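Let's study today's protein:

:::
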Amino acid sequence: MKFLSIVLMACVSLTSMAQDVSLALQKRKIITREAVANEWNSIADGLFFSYASSDVRFARETPPAITAAKKWTATAWKGEKIHTQILLWSKQKTSNIKIGFSDLKAENGSLIKKENITTGFLKYVITDEFRDGCGYRKPQDFDSSYVADLIDTKIQAVSLAAKSTQPIWLSIKVPAGALAGNYSGTIKIIGDKTYNLPIKIEVLNKTLPSPSQWKYDLDLWQHPAAIARTHLVKLWSDKHFALMKPYYEMLANAGQKTITASIVNEPWGHQTFDDYPSLIKWIKKKDGTWSYDYSLFDRYVTFVMSTGINERINCYSMVPWKIAFTYWDEALQKEAVFKDAIGTPAYNTFWQTMLTDFTRHLKAKNWFQKTYIAMDERPMAAMQAVIKLLKTVDPAWKIALAGEYHAEIEPDIDNYCIASKWEFPADVLQKRNKQGKISTWYTCCTEPYPNAFSFSSPAEQVWMGWYTANKKMDGYLRWAYNSWTKNPLTDTRFTAWPAGDTYMVYPGPLTSVRFEKLIEGAQDFEKIRQLRLLYTKNKNTTALAELNKALAGFEIHALSKITADEMLQRVKPLLNK
């Protein structure tokens, strides 16, 4: 394992970067141990503390290069969740540091109860670098470092090692029913002494709807087997379902709309650390006919819907990465594999039989109208063959695709998610909106920026919401919510892609800086949407033009010249006038 001696902001070596990395990465710098020692020697004894931006990652080994801020002043809408960081640093070891807080109170006596305030100590996990993006990698071949990403809301106290910095994440969820006004309160840092850090929040007379009502279409793919493995329980047991519940509720509270449902074994060719088993058992009977056991599919879908994720069911996949469909052969009394190519008569018969029965079952459950056959990018002939087959079974079948933009099949795709290098033609997007079709975009291991790797700038996840609004798309997709690595609580690196690519939250469930900033981007999208409607209704052409001008700057190529954080600082005030 090759670790950099000291890395500010979890930086990677500049000499190994591709030329197209974002400016945020270019600005990160490496310093020597001697320089770090000099920085610590230059500060006085005692515990130091300050509020700090939630868009910046701070290194553990160095004192933060900030101007100390002892008061946090923020503006929020009703129903909005806002964040900041508190930094602690000292030359001396400090044990048993705790955080305390109480209700926030307005001058008129209104309260934001302390139950709406959460704090979490940030933990450092191992990350690496983008370099070549996709492709199998060995840890020793990539620069690695520690980055503050995991937000541990379960521990009550920490000990601060000598000559180190400890970030603390602070979130306040303003209740939708809060009265507009200025709310004040105090965060207490309890260590060798008690230190008070004031808070002042101005709550505007504007309201965000609950996440279930957001128009922003977030789709993070779920991985049930990873939860069973990390919690050491049997897959699909009652304990497994009980453990999954808080993960899915956390995702629903981020505005998730879609259930990820695998209807075949390993739809992505076992590219993940954990298995991805089918929710449907395929059975070839002794007489050659087929039966399908939907009991697990039904239980799982019903369970996920109960957590608040209930708008659609994306079924993966008739077009997996490897054509190898497993089933139970009653005559042979063992598992067998169907391998005939897409578009062949055998393939069509194999799937037409299943789809006919699946359609009947979904209609009986009243789920057919919200179920999609989902595909990743595949050769055009294969995708066209699958579309044709689906429509012969039932013309009302819906199709979801994440991949390149293809004008040839666009009319057939009900939920179309395009790679970041593509854009929907304006007339096509307008038509899709009128038809009620979903049009989103995604990032993966291909893009150095914007992205959600564990070394990505946190501001990039907020930036994505603004980009989505600028392009008049509906939302954003990313695999994956929780396809964890072998040791996800300590090491976000994986064998095939940049660190953090496979998950946004940690076992616990524990949230992350990336996940919280992704939610912030969704909230900004909702604010932008509401303000556009309000300014149009009120004929406030000046404010509308100002907002649209600000949005126009959100182009991906701009991140090579200005950081996402800098862009957002310029435009964020427009949402809180």
